[in-house]
Amino acid sequence: MGSPISTPPDPGLRRTFRQLVPWRAALTIGAMLVFVALLQRLPVIHRLLENAPHWHETPYAPLWFLLLAVPYCACGLPRQALCIAAGLAFGVWGGLGLCSLAYMMGAIAAYGWARALSPIKFRQRLHDRLQKNYAALARTLHRKPFRAVLTLRLMPVGSALLVSMAAGLFELSVPAFALATLLGGLPQNLVFVLVGAGTRIGHVVQLGLAGGLFVVSGALGAMLLRHADE
């Protein structure tokens, strides 16, 4: 008996992902590291960073952070700034935990709004737009929701809000969406938390580690993309 013929990956899906990941995304972390290194040379910033390890001593600091971070993530605002601030205030592991939780909760909030609370006309218009412009992505979201969301979250660039709203409009499984968001967001969350923690005085090595992890995150996304429609 011959071996089964595998279905070739959908070229439309690959084109969709390539549009979401332009070549200039590779420059993002480099620009961030250079900016942070230059910023540290300012006397005012230097004194501010010396006090950063004590910011978490504010009463109920993690709770206040989540109260601000969850709606921030739900609106799809750049989480890089949020992760850098968390790294400064709470260190690597505390900042990573808080940012990852806020990112997942914010994504679930955007998912829920798109699925149940947004105006019907808005839902229909966005649904039609996704079906027209991202047909291959829509098919993959239906067939393999966990892998599709995980791949999108791992990509260095792209609209986190659009992914959450698309998942809500297509009524993906909430547990699969939440888990894929949590796991897919971890590498980049860690990258920018390390950048934030690395701006503390004497933590320069973490900046280099952040750059390496950024490359790893992109490689994971590319690997999943290669097998996205197999």
TrEMBL record:
Record has Amino-acid biosynthesis as a keyword: no
Regions crossing the membrane: 20-39, 60-82, 88-114, 149-170, 176-197, 204-225
Pfam family, one: VTT_dom
Record bears the keyword Nucleus: no
Membrane topology: Multi-pass membrane protein
Subcellular location: Cell membrane
Domain VTT: 77-197
Alphabetical UniProt keywords: Cell membrane, Membrane, Transmembrane, Transmembrane helix
Main location: membrane
Family to which this protein belongs: Belongs to the TVP38/TMEM64 family.
Protein known as: TVP38/TMEM64 family membrane protein
Protein species of origin: Gluconobacter thailandicus NBRC 3257
Lineage start: Bacteria, Pseudomonadati, Pseudomonadota, Alphaproteobacteria, Acetobacterales
